[in-house]
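Quick review question:
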């Protein structure tokens, strides 16, 4: 029976998470370049005091993220261009030197995709989804809403729009970008204010109600341009 003074063994899942986070950060910061071998399973197990199963679980997760490729010749880092979009938030979080540039790039990508998603939502949404989006747009214009509340309201609009677009590809591509952008906006205390986009939110709600996809897309583009300007003004 273990003594009360013995440390509680770390669960294998937590060991795997620590190993995964360590390797992910080293690859994203390019301390391990594309094509270079990552530490062996034995070395990782020794470094973290972990079992080989925990190491393998971490490696499988990194491979699913597109960061490494496993094989008989050793496990090697992959080019970041082949990684999953889910890593955008991790990259922004750990790269303080380039965070401003990365946030601007993220906003610009969303500036391209969001108007398309809005147009598709206007075309494909059923009446219930249109009513939901209009209600969310109106909620974002609530007087007295603080900045974080306003940004969360815009996040809810974006999520509803992507779902209503009925495009699986848009959902897969835009969801991680939207999550990365929203979390960093809250953390950085940045982003547009209601005064910046109030008219566009009102016009977008009217465009949804009238089923005018081109007009709604133009409103969406103007809203996302305000995000980009907010980040550019901070850089």
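Suggested answer, residue by residue:
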């Amino acid at each position: 029976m273990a003594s009360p003074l013995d440390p509680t063994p770390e669960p294998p899942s937590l060991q795997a998470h620590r190993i995964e986070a360590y390797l992910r950060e080293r690859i994203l910061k390019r301390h391990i370049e594309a094509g270079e071998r990552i530490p062996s399973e034995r070395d990782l197990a020794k470094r973290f005091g972990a079992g080989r199963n925990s190491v393998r679980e971490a490696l499988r997760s990194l491979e699913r993220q597109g960061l490494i490729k496993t094989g008989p010749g050793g496990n090697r880092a992959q080019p970041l261009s082949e990684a999953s979009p889910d890593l955008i938030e991790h990259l922004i979080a750990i790269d303080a030197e380039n965070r401003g540039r990365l946030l601007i790039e993220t906003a610009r990508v969303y500036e391209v995709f969001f108007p398309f998603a809005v147009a598709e939502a206007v075309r494909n949404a059923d009446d219930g989804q249109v009513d939901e989006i209009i209600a969310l747009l109106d909620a974002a214009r609530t007087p007295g809403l603080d900045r974080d509340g306003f940004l969360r309201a815009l996040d809810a609009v974006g999520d509803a729009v992507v779902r209503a677009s009925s495009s699986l590809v848009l959902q897969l591509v835009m969801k991680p970008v939207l999550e990365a952008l929203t979390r960093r906006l809250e953390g950085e205390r940045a982003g547009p204010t209601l005064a910046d986009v109030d008219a566009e939110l009102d016009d977008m709600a009217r465009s949804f109600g009238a089923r005018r996809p081109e007009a709604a897309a133009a409103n969406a583009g103007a809203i996302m341009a305000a995000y980009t300007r907010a980040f550019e003004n901070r850089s």
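Why it works: The first strand starts at residue 68 and ends at 69. Residues 100 and 234 are 8 Å apart (CA to CA).
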